[in-house]
Amino acid sequence: MVLLAFLVLLSAGVFLESSEAQEDLNTLPENYIKGVQLAEEQINSHQTIKNIFLYFKSLEKSDIDGGFGVRYLFHRFYLKATRCPKGTADPNPTECTFRNDRPLIDCGICYKTYSGEIQSEPKPYIHCIHKPQLTQVSCERCQQTLNR
């Protein structure tokens, strides 16, 4: 009986955790959501990835107005492994629950937008590695790219 109660509490915790992350993504401004999607596409396209990674939470953001509809964005966030296999159509945290047995992926991305669309020049800089290996050097390189 104690085991059953523990499993019910554990299941509720997983549901709350996964729904909290999705709410965070939906509260981000559209320009940041596009950057997260770009990073998710890159990570989930790797041959070694077996399960889909989804946005988990933001760590830091910056947005520089370049004028005339141009914005330079930096976003650092975590991606977390889910239980959905690679190739799942329209994955989301309510259907693809997060796994707690895999490390988070720490991502830093900087890119330029014009009228809300990510520009190909300069090429968006995406750097994602298993936590806690994202270094200060990686963050500084991204900031230097924004300041050019």
UniProtKB/TrEMBL annotation:
CC annotations in GO: extracellular region
Signal peptide location: 1-21
GO function term, MF aspect, one: signaling receptor binding
Predominant cellular place of this UniProt entry's protein: secreted
GO biological process: cell differentiation; chemotaxis; inflammatory response; regulation of lipid catabolic process
Subcellular locations according to the entry: Secreted
Name the record gives this protein: Retinoic acid receptor responder protein 2
Source organism per UniProt: Danionella cerebrum
Native organism taxonomy: Eukaryota, Metazoa, Chordata, Craniata, Vertebrata
